[in-house]
Amino acid sequence: MAREPNEDTDAFITEVCWHYFVNEMTQAEIARMLDVTRLRINQAIQRAKVEGLVKIQIESPFLPRIDLQESLKEALGIERAVVCPVNPDGYDYHRPVGAALAAFITERLSVSPWRSFGVSWGLTLDSAIRKLPRGSFPDLEVISILGGTAQGSSFNSFGIASGFAGVLGAHYSVLTAPIYLSEGIDRDLFLSQYALKEHFEKFEKLDAVLLTCSNVSQKSFLVEHGLPKEITPEGLVEAGAIGDVLGHFLDKDGNSVSVDVDQRTIGMPLEQVFAVPEKIMAAAGAHKVGIIKAACRKGLVDTLVTDDMTGRLLLEQAESDIAFID
Amino acid sequence: MAREPNEDTDAFITEVCWHYFVNEMTQAEIARMLDVTRLRINQAIQRAKVEGLVKIQIESPFLPRIDLQESLKEALGIERAVVCPVNPDGYDYHRPVGAALAAFITERLSVSPWRSFGVSWGLTLDSAIRKLPRGSFPDLEVISILGGTAQGSSFNSFGIASGFAGVLGAHYSVLTAPIYLSEGIDRDLFLSQYALKEHFEKFEKLDAVLLTCSNVSQKSFLVEHGLPKEITPEGLVEAGAIGDVLGHFLDKDGNSVSVDVDQRTIGMPLEQVFAVPEKIMAAAGAHKVGIIKAACRKGLVDTLVTDDMTGRLLLEQAESDIAFID
DNA sequence: TAGGTTAACTTACATATGTATTTTGATTTT
DNA sequence: AAAATCAAAATACATATGTAAGTTAACCTA
Questions:
Q1: Does residue A198 sit in the same domain as residue A151?
Q2: pLDDT tens digits for A54-84?
Q3: Residue pair B196/B161 in contact by the 8 Å Cβ criterion
Q4: Beta strand extents in A20-144 (DSSP E only)
Q5: Is residue B59 included in any domain, yes or no?
Q6: CATH code for the domain in which residue A89 is found
Q7: Strand C lies under 7 A from the Cβ of residue A39
Q8: Interface test with B, best of A8, A18, A51, A305 (most B CBs within 10 A)
Q9: What pLDDT, in 10s, does the model give residues B254-303?
Q10: Which nucleotide is nearest to B4 (CA to C1')?
């Protein structure tokens, strides 16, 4: 081995970003001034963007799509829809929907003082954390409401709950458990552990939940990596499943297709979700149209945060409730 | 006359910015998608930046300059110094110092709940408003502490106080009076007007003030456009003035050089400023070094927000208290 | 309807940005 | 000490951005 990679410090990146975004200097100018190569300036700015060190806020970001939002409220029977514009080519919905969710949360928190809210996990929530402006809510607690997988911090509730709490200056409480119990372990016995019991009691007093969902296909991280091997996507589809919410697989009417799976799921039960005052679902993508509609129909959603493409699909195929396997 | 200029709507600009900053599309892509020319996209983005519709926040913006901040605290005998990096060429301190002030205010508001704070006026405060992220502080009141001039909204307390209140979601109270009384009008009689009396009483309970300052030269808006014609810059310099704070001209020790001028100034008296718990001065530029030091020496400043260039000058010329006329 | 006026479009181009490739040189290994 | 290794610098270049022309066409006026 030779030299160590030159890890740029936070202070360096901060200074570069200040010159670039506030003083509006060019990258070349900054490089000359700080006596480094332009490449390092360029990379510093890119890293700052990715890691959320610079946050770009747009005032009233969902002003434009009012028509679509109104139609969606009507069609899905929900209280509120937030629709953000998305790039139809190179379609990546995580970032824009995450940004819209972040803006929505900021707005809600400034108006109604949540004491606690629940979070599941997934890339959309991960993206929301990066876009959320730093705040100070010392009386707020972020509660993870779903067990995690072994892989990557976006896919377990620890990374998400602690991430939200970090930027919001709040406390957090995580669910240190897998999303699905291994076969043979008794659910009630498992949940009777002191730490878990205390955590589950917090579900009863949540002011809001941030929900996500997915369909039954390779596009679903849960289906691809999170299911115990005894549970197969084919079996779930046969049973009528079109997607999942909080690890529970639902049919097109939002009813669970497998008591067996439900019994093994470590997380907030759907019955309890109904009782939460604000049920916010962030979800987008053509493959999620079916499960989004099912969740809305069942009453699991007050506010839907999505993009215009998905919004339009939700309206168009008002009658197609097909499970997508692609 | 021919066609009307096509004033882009807020919704249009918002959508363009969303595509550009969140979805990271190129301006050409956005133009193609929305079927307008690239020029209009380009202009929309520029307008959004200037008008503060997009706000770029940098996490912990004054992390880098800790050494300089510590030295300044020591040298000036103040509680806190906030130093932001600045572009030495094409030197414009209003924007970066305004941005730093905005970040500082955001931070302070999230920690200590001010009930009210006072504002003077000037380009630096105007710039701070543009950089300040929208907030909701319904119990906060922004109080203008200085009369205004007839010209431009940045130079009267109405634009500044209402601007701060607007972005912070706060109330405001303005001082509807000129900065200097005309000769012959009795100050006490003038201030006894009901509306003014009520306003002046609020000065006693301020949690913080945002102060600015300037020197005695053409660079000072106050000197160039705000002085009654009986008061000349030459006369003020002869009397020992090196600059002004809240319309009061001070010598190098921070003492007023003209009881006459003070008698005509409509604004918060300096004696009252001393009593405010947080005295924040935002000021930068080589020409302000003298007056900044004088104000600090006199005890008018707890927190100084400035840039690295001015910071370094403040340290270097620890002994030069010259009034700059250039 | 002809002519003047001007916003918006078109074109052009200089500069800035993002990225890939090659070169350099410090450090470690043999 | 020579060779190997690899991060950082240098170089090169395709694309994006900002701005300044000239051109077109909508609209008003007379």
A1: yes
A2: 888 887 666 667 778 888 888 999 999 999 8
A3: no
A4: 54-58, 80-84, 116-119, 141-144
A5: no
A6: 3.40.50.1360
A7: yes
A8: A18
A9: 999 988 889 889 999 999 999 999 999 999 999 999 999 999 999 999 99
A10: C7
